[in-house]
Predict the structure.
Amino acid sequence: MTRFLSTIASAGGHPGPYELALDPTRSTLDTARLVAQRAEAARIDALFVPDLLVFGAQGTIGAQEPLMFVAALSQVTSKAGLIATVSTTFHHPFNLARLFGTLDHLSNGRAAWNLVTSSIGEQNFGPGGLPSPEQRYARAAETIEVVNALWDSWKPGSLRLGPGGKAVLDTSLIKPVNFEGEFFSVEGPINIPPLPQGRPVLIQAGQSAAGIALGARYAEVVFTALATLADAHRFTSEIRAQAGALGRTQGPLIFSSFHATFGASESEAQRLVRERREAIDYEAGRALVADMLGGGVDLTEAKLDEPLPEVLIPDISGINRRRGRAEIFSRLIREGRTLRELIQAAQDTGHWSVAGTPEQLADAVEERFRAGVLDVLSLGGLADDRTHDFVVNGLLHELRKRGIVKDDYRGATLRSNLGLEEPT
Amino acid sequence: MSLHLALEVDGDGADVAALTAHVTAAEAAGFALVTIADSPLPPADGSVRIEAGVRAAYLSRRTTRIGLAPTLHASVTEPFHLATQLASLDHASLGRAAWVVGAESSAAAAATVGEPVLTGSDLRREIADVIDVARQLWDSWEDDAVIRDRATSRFLDPDRVHHVNFTGARFTVSGPLITPRPPQGQVVVIGADTLGVTSRLDIALVDTADTAAGLGELTERTALARADGAALVFADLPSADASLLRHLDGVVDGVRIRVADIPLVTDLLKTRPPAGPTLRDTLGLPRPANQFAVAG
């Protein structure tokens, strides 16, 4: 089968829509509806919503509960996949299996779960504190085992169409799961019928060593922040090697963030980047970089235009939150970057950031796609009229002209549109 | 006739087209709200169902006037998720969300999430805690917290967003909610009078048997529920007939019936006033003041 680049659009929660959120004539849902309709018209494969467990995380424009939000968006879409980001740290797998199973039913097979382990949120799910990364990833792995067992607990043929089109249930084909693990004890079976996709598409985010190990074992798609082509090569070969060692024939698809700055000319794009850099509050940026490094360092006295000393590189094993980010920023220090450069990188939190004309951005995308280190591209900015025009009529048009992005949806389910295998 | 009408619409399994048909028909007929039953356990009759909250979100823009009341079980759901889901349903439906407080507490239900079985006063306390924290979280953003001030590029006024710092018997929540205050201020909270939390309900549901003794008991329990502070009392009727409905008019504020009984009420519905735009408007419930708002 010809390999294509898939596309996923952010439907809300990204810092980008902050300016739009200031528009009193638009509600969050109105903006998301507009994005959903524009995404589907542009044949973008799926819509993505983040999970914000704490007020103030990633901006303070307010956020909706992701499963309810994408279920509401299912009404204004009929082709695009619906990706809800949900943490395994603060949910029980039985409830998660019911929620995502319901989403897959009512969207006719368009549901996907972006699995995160959360580095924040414990204050709203007390009284326990935030478990260590090791515990969070162990719980995530066990959660996946439980939800998969629950979704598989109705064997083929358990629900058949009987005389007069009435559904007939054969309860002898519905089996308990009897799961006993470190975190959960779940008898099952689940009380919802087999899902249109068998299982929702499993996407996973998290680039720490534990995150890569989890993704290599279970994820069908991994969401990544890979700032450079070298980062993308390193990550892709690592996770594919681990997946291959586990006997997986189809390694996870690489889904990369992409912070695009569009210009009608290269100089316009560069001017926009320059203006954004000039607007950075470098004093506030010191705290931001300290946070990226795990929060345990003090940068208030460090010189802006000198490389940071390696002594500031934190002991990763002592960091409880966002280890992957700390690893990225530690590497930047080792590469001799200045504090100013780190503060600039922190504005994009280590994401892949490219500025240029739509053709130049297409070149950057094509380079990674042809190198085999990019399978799914994240697209933002559809709510904004200017960016929407650049993304759809510029970048996507160019990528289609080059035969990289397919012209239309391939099938009815998200799984078929991403070219993923059916679960067995 | 002055009764509000609610319709229980669970029963279509995973067939969301059938569900949508029932709900849009109820809306066209003038029902105030639909309730959507749920349980972590399979229905006793061996049929199937899917989760109620996500079903309600799916209906949020396929309807325009009818209230949407999924059952979420306080006993098996994280309170913060529950409060956020209902707030999001209220935003998605532009102010038509309600919550039927579920308290599934059998050993089998508790086992689905590995929680201990709660009974008696422990169960009542847990339900009360979940309702209380949900109501506090819905108020954790004041109505005017969102200022959308373009001049200063400020979306909200942080002084008008509050921690709730809730400590219940079995959980704690700091808050605030991630979601702005629901359009109705507070989602309409519905629950059985037998839960023991009537003072916390907007609508108390009183079940009844269609017998003379049953009606006597209903009248008594309705008076008790009103005395406990329930704003409205609905009779919950597993089966209905026209004479029963006429009898209840003036005793209770509304009735909840099943799909099979819709033909009985279509004549009565012709006198209902138009609904909306919010469920609170339809029910004549005031939009509550925010418990965190400071005067001035």
Notes: DSSP finds 14 helices and 14 strands in chain A.
